[in-house]
Design goal:
Elements: E1 3-9, H1 16-23, E2 29-34, E3 45-56, E4 62-67, H2 76-82, E5 87-93, H3 99-109, H4 111-115, E6 119-124, H5 134-140, E7 150-152, H6 158-172
Parallel strand pairs: 1-4, 1-5, 5-6, 6-7
Antiparallel strand pairs: 2-3, 3-4
Helix pairs in contact: 1-6
């Protein structure tokens, strides 16, 4: 029986906690607290340490799901949470004012981890903002990430998040069956 660890990251409001909640086979552990800074303009609560859930795969394997805080002031948790991880799911909120800035910020912040693991990108809130498009995101990716899977994701929908995680796992082991 194998245990794996996947990290979910992205800016505040991208859907990290929601994605873990929709995917987890257990009641997720959350460290949400009332937002007291500019984040309060976007949402009532924010993750201050991590979210945690578990996905049980066929064959007895377990994927531990860790969500990072989206605020840079909690970035000390990012290195802690990525230790032992096999891949990164980056969620980007398409309705934020500068989603490409968010994309580049998180690719840079997690570059060392991504270079030794795998990456999949989910674009959320495309129902609220249909631009930029997925093609725009592909064009915006640095060349070293040209093979990275990018999907439109509704973090509330388990099926959407499963496809994103499956693409991450497939990029780690291309011998996996769909």
């Amino acid at each position: 029986m194998n245990d794996h660890k996947i990290i979910f990251t992205g800016p505040v409001g991208a859907g990290k906690s929601t994605a873990i909640r929709s995917l987890s086979d257990i009641a997720p552990v959350s460290t949400d607290e009332l937002a007291t800074d500019i984040t309060a303009e976007r949402k009532e609560q924010t993750t201050v340490a991590m979210d945690y859930g578990v996905l049980k795969l066929d064959g007895g394997e377990t994927v531990h799901l860790y969500g990072t805080p989206g605020q840079e002031r909690f970035n000390f948790m990012w290195d802690i949470l990525t230790q032992g991880g096999i891949g990164l799911v980056l969620l980007i909120n398409n309705s934020r004012p500068a989603p490409f800035t968010d994309l580049h910020f998180f690719l840079s912040a997690f570059e060392k981890f991504i270079d030794t693991s795998a990456l999949a990108i989910g674009i959320t809130q495309m129902d609220k903002a249909d631009s930029p498009t997925l093609d725009d995101y592909y064009r915006e990716l640095p060349a070293k990430y040209f093979n990275t899977p990018i999907f439109e994701v509704d973090a509330r929908q388990r099926h959407d998040v499963v496809i994103l995680v499956e693409s991450l796992l497939f990029s780690l082991d291309q011998c996996l069956e769909a």
